Amino acid sequence: MIKQEQGKKEKRQVYRWTDFKGVDYAHAPANVSPQRCVDGMNMVRSEVGKIHKRTGYRLDSRVWMGNINGVHFLRKGDEEICLVHCGENFYIDGVSIYSDAADNFSRSVQIADKLYILDGKRFVTFDGENVKGIAEGAYIPTIYINKKPVGGGEKYEQVNILTQRRCEGFIADGVSVLYMLSRTEITIGSVTAVVYADDGSAVEYTDGSGITVDSARGTVTFATAPPAPRNPEESNVFIVYEKDDGNDSTVLDKCTVMAMFGPGGKPDTLFISGNPDHPGREWFSQGENPAFFGRENTDLAGSTNSPVTGYSVKGDKLFVHRRNGERNLNILVRSCSGGDENFYSYPVVNALEGPSAVSRNSFVNMAGDALFLTGEGVYAITEKEAEDRHFTQLRSFYINPVLKDKIYTGCTAVAYGDFYVLASGSDIFLLDTLQKSHEEDKEYSRYQYECFHWQIPEDIRLLFVQEGRLCFATTGGKIGRFYTDYNSPASFNDAGRAIHAVWQSGEFDGDNQVRNKTVHRLWVTCATAVRTSVNVLAQIKGVWHGLFVDDTTARYFKWSEICWSKFTWSTDKTPKIISRGIRLKNVDKTAIRLENNTVNEPFGLYEAGFEYTTGSYYR
Questions:
Q1: Contact at 8 Å (CB) between 486 and 456?
Q2: Cα separation of 468 and 96, whole Å?
Q3: Three-class secondary structure of residue 556 per DSSP
């Protein structure tokens, strides 16, 4: 047995933190990796391995009178038009342009030069100036082509559930005046007819003006027989009419979730669901024509007991998220199947096991992951390499113990830079897609994202990104916008209030836990700024003790930001070492806490460490 003399002094050893990652709420402080922190409130990655204090935000001067339910952006060329959904109104530049919306969250997608918006009350479009019900511009389908005047012909397009109007195309024979529609009991006064000549000119007729309509029989009689076309296989007579065949044209209005998908993953078809009267029912438009929802373009996602909560798109697959799926199969996988441009189908080809999505505002695609929030944390849909098989995997392991206590259906998420940003009340969680780590506790997940945690003195209802800035709307009708200029001290306040930024290490007990450790010198390498400071604390027997505060060393001189109480002539903008001789005597373990809680001060960390010696057995 090797013996060591009691109290024998050893050479000083060095312990350093050089690679800063995110927070770790999943492990006990004694088991947290040196790369992560037990508490990293209001810190974020500056570059891989380094962290700094987040910027603050300003609040717009306007306070909206009601819930902000959506902030939508229509992009036309270089112009971006912002449409704010507040209460039951839609606003442009503070002026209401629509007042019949639901006081509920709204969602939108842009297709061509229009926004398509769902709020659970009415399916509407926005063209940059006006908000209209989608039925007002509904596409009129041609359900038959190449019909003879007495009937027959080829089925061409489906009936559009957004409108009762439809068209039938005939090939005139130059003799017949009576044309028979495929439907009887058509709507009185709804018929128009257009006859095309070989030179492309057209003549339009209405009931009583060139044509006589028998609505009960579904016939149209021309005063003069339309001429036969030069091409005997091409329709030259088109008759438009309405037929009430029991189709509910408002069935899409109550929908609340939507996605863009299509053949091969091409985003040209609009999928919508979430109608509480039809749980699990989905509808999809014709490709590149969101004003055309064919009556047959619908399917049931599993069963009526599993309402659809959202969509994810990954490659050539559409993932339908639902709640309470059979055998915990909460994600159905759809793929485009054959057909032609008028009759594509999207059958279910697989089902994935995993927890249900809980928030309709949490679906984000980024970094090759389709991310969404569940009751068990943030999950991703991923695929096995070299195989066309998909899986769900946890991505928020390091923050799950705190995140799971704050999950509710109103959580909201956006992609901001390389971060998946999720807000729940006053808490903001960031998953860093640039930093991935394998965690042995979660071997079935290929990797976990490094995570950061912020808190702000506001109750966030909605997140959005505008002009490269992370923004939020509060439950009190305010809109806040985070600053992006890290070089300006004025960026570091939350609407005038100080931001409390913290980095706290895990517990250090050296290589020999049973022996006393004495810490002799501690240093922190901080990013420089015209105004910055650091408060250094150490934990001794479970109690935090202040060691020192430094508010001058990491400063550099700038005339426009001069402060005589903390004056420096230094023009060195490189990271500065703040070093102090200290004495933490005969401790079995300790931890370090670095803080900045001063208004308009940035705070960045490059390295921290201390020198220590090991002594006698701890008593």
A1: no
A2: 26
A3: coil
- Domains delineated in the chain: 13-36+48-53+501-617 (2.60.120), 142-242 (no CATH)
Rounded (5°) CA angle 477-479-485: 165
Count each helix (H run) and each strand (E run) in the chain, helices first.
1, 45
Q: How far apart are CA 232 and CA 239, in angstroms?
A: 18
Dihedral angle computed from the Cα positions of residues 290, 294, 297 and 303, in that order, rounded to the nearest 10 degrees: 100
pLDDT digits (tens, 9 = 90+) for 487-525: 899 999 999 999 999 999 999 988 788 888 899 999 999
Distances from the Cα of 546 to the Cαs of 457, 535, 550, in angstroms?
26, 8, 12
Neighbour-count burial for 323-352, b at 16+ CB within 10 Å, e otherwise: eebeeeebbbbbbbeeeeeeebebeeeebb
Report the alpha-carbon distance of residue 555 to residue 567 in Å, rounded.
Answer: 8
User: What pLDDT, on a 0 to 100 scale, did the predictor assign at position 569?
Assistant: 52
For residue 434, the Cα-to-chain-centroid distance in whole angstroms is 18
Phi first, then psi: what are they for 95, rounded to 5°?
-105, 125
C-alpha 41/C-alpha 127 separation (Å) is 42
Cα–Cα distance for residue pair 190/186, rounded to 1 Å = 8
How many residues are there in the chain?
A: 619
Residue with tokens 């809980």: 358
Task: Give the 3-state secondary structure of 442-473.
Answer: HCCCCCEEEEEEEEEEEEEEEEEEECCEEEEE
Q: What is the pTM of this model?
A: 0.92
- The DSSP bridge pattern shows strands 257-261 and 448-466 to be unpaired
pLDDT in tens, 174-228: 999 999 999 999 999 999 999 999 998 999 999 999 999 999 999 999 999 999 9
Contact (Cβ atoms closer than 8 angstroms) between residue 293 and residue 142: no
Distance CA 475, CA 488 (A): 29
Nearby residues of 565 by Cβ (< 8 Å), 6 or more positions away: none
Please name the residues in contact with 613: beta carbons below 8 A apart, sequence gap of 6 or more: 9, 10, 11, 12, 13, 517, 518, 520
The tokens for 129 are: 């100036």
